[in-house]
Amino acid sequence: MERYEYFKQFHDISLADYRLLTDNLKPRSFKKGDCITVPGQVQRELYFVKSGVQVAYFDSGDKTYVIDFSYSPNLCAIAESFSFQVPSRYFLTCLTESEFECLSYEDLQTLMDQSRQIERLFRRMIEAMLAGMIDLHINLRALTIEERYKAFCRRNPQLLHLVPHKYIASHLGIDPTNFSKLYNHVKF
Predict the structure, then answer these.
(1) How many CB atoms lie within 10 A of CB 98?
(2) How far apart are CA 28 and CA 122, in angstroms?
(3) Is the pLDDT at 187 greater than 80, yes or no?
(4) Which range is least confidently modeled, 32-41, 101-110, 140-149, 179-188?
(5) Do residues 87 and 42 make contact, with C-beta atoms less than 8 angstroms apart?
(6) Any idea what DSSP says for residue 34?
(7) Is 75 in contact with 49 (CB distance < 8 Å)?
(8) What is the CA radius of gyration of the chain?
(9) Cyclic nucleotide-binding domain spans which residues (predicted)?
């Protein structure tokens, strides 16, 4: 029922609609380093993270740019690829062994046609994701590197021990050397 409580943060979905949704989920697992989605591939499934950490990123030249991390109980997807069924421009890779429950795009569309509650739940989850992306963009432009680091640590302290710091530094727009200094000297 942990996932039920997670969903209720976004929308007060009924237990019947929750069961309708979860009865359609299928288990899936990936090993550390496995790519879930690669550039040019359409993401056909939406993943509900049960365990593990994943990273969405793209490479440009010799640099890697981290877009986001996912972990339990959150959703895991290249949002625009899944939502619009278009080829991804990014990688979605497992940083650790990962367990999921997944739902195909077609099954989700059918469920949203069957239940306004499920449709509303996903709309609100997407709205929350959009708000989080806007906050990240504002933080990248308005906050100092120390403020960005502290904000990340408050939101995601567990990731400091699970994710290579170079990925967190990239996500926060901080040079890896400066990130290391922050990690070693700044308390949050």
Answers:
(1) 25
(2) 21
(3) no
(4) 179-188
(5) yes
(6) -
(7) yes
(8) 17
(9) 9-52
Whether 117 contacts 53, CB under 8 Å: no
Torsion of the alpha carbons at 43, 45, 46 and 52, rounded to the nearest 10: -90
> What is the DSSP-derived secondary structure letter of residue 140?
H
pTM of the model: 0.89
The pLDDT of residue 138 is 92
> 3 is written with which tokens?
């996932």
pLDDT average, residue stretch 125-144: 90
CATH number of the 2-115 domain: 2.60.120.10
Q: Report residue 8 as tokens.
A: 């209720």
Rounded to an integer, the average pLDDT of 172-181 is: 92
Characterise 173 by phi-psi region: left (phi > 0), alpha (psi -120 to 50), beta (else).
left
Asked if 36 and 93 touch (Cβ cutoff 8 Å), the reply is yes
Domain ranges of the chain: 2-115
Angle 116-142/15-22 helices, nearest 10 degrees? 80
Task: Tell me the one-letter amino acid at 26.
Answer: K
Q: How far apart are CA 43 and CA 154, in angstroms?
A: 31
